[in-house]
């Protein structure tokens, strides 16, 4: 298959290439067998990630998907309940892994927030001593929630509720970097509360591979066993971990630029015929006339700008490391041209 012909790829913040400096760090990485816990670069990445998030320990995983699934696997036994938003990545975008791998029963809520409302929690916790009921094991949150920043008060409230009732709380913070940047808080503050937290190095940070699960030392010891069970034991993984380590050192600070660029793109697109656009951290959500979104995404692609229709009237664009200031102006011009063609 040919590589993409898209000149400006806004389909996802995973569409980045390692920078020359990142590649150099990867090429020069000290490595060892990480299944034997002898890869110094992986150890360094895990220690640095845990420290940044204010936790005892971290485990490097091939993907955020696997980190989430390990958290679910550790939290519940077969038949227990997992509570999450109906659109949570851990339920809807990981092939039903929590059902397949851990045999957990999903209980969902809807609404704009990924953080369960207090009334919903209170309603679900009632009657759990009834013989008919499955036992609740895990309550999940997500931040950012498809670009939207969740208030940390909700995270603290849900985490306290979970502790009080003997559930585990998990935060899918694949884009926690963006949330912390937008909130103007430290990563440790943004991660505070839940028992386990997932972060992803290959989204906004632009590393080629990997994610991490962070928690207390004992949970991470068990997570290391679970990662092996899932076939995620990696050998000289320092090669890829070095990219993530480089990203933590050099690409965290610049996320505010992505957010500012998303704002500029949204402002430009709102002037295009038939479009209204909103920036949510590094994402731009553009509303089209009903049914027009797939056509707009296709036409933009033909003009060399990659974006995705996430609904019949909604196109998503994601700003990342490989999108420059000039790319934003160019993308806005080309998508505007596409919107004009559709409106004509
Ligand atoms: C992308 C994403 C994941 C999965 O990340 P991978 O590293 O690609 O597996 C999980 N959760 C959320 C919220 C995501 O956006």
List the helices and strands and how they pair.
Layout: E1 8-9, H1 20-27, H2 40-52, E2 57-61, H3 64-75, E3 81-85, H4 89-92, H5 97-100, E4 105-109, H6 118-125, E5 136-142, H7 152-165, E6 168-173, H8 176-183, H9 187-191, E7 196-200, E8 211-215, H10 217-229, H11 238-250, H12 255-269, E9 276-280, E10 283-287, H13 293-302, E11 305-306, E12 308-311, E13 314-318, H14 325-343
Parallel strand pairs: 1-11, 3-4, 3-5, 5-6, 6-7
Antiparallel strand pairs: 2-8, 7-8, 9-10, 10-13, 12-13
Helix pairs in contact: 1-11, 2-11, 3-10, 12-14, 13-14
Overall average pLDDT: 97
Largest sheet: 7 strands, mixed
Through-space gap between termini? 34 Å
Q: Roughly how many Å is the radius of gyration? A: 21 Å
- Would you tell me the structural class of the helices and strands? alpha/beta
Q: Tell me the β content.
A: 15-25%
Secondary structure: helix percent: 40-55%
Instruction: Tally the beta strands.
Output: 13
Order of helices and strands: EHHEHEHHEHEHEHHEEHHHEEHEEEH
* Parts with pLDDT < 50 across at least 5 consecutive residues: none
Query: Main sheet: which strands, in order across?
Result: 2-8-7-6-5-3-4
Number of helices: 14
Shape: globular
**Which ligands occur here?**
pyridoxal-5'-phosphate
Family: Belongs to the threonine aldolase family.
Organism: Nocardiopsis endophytica
Pfam family, one: Beta_elim_lyase
Cofactor: pyridoxal 5'-phosphate
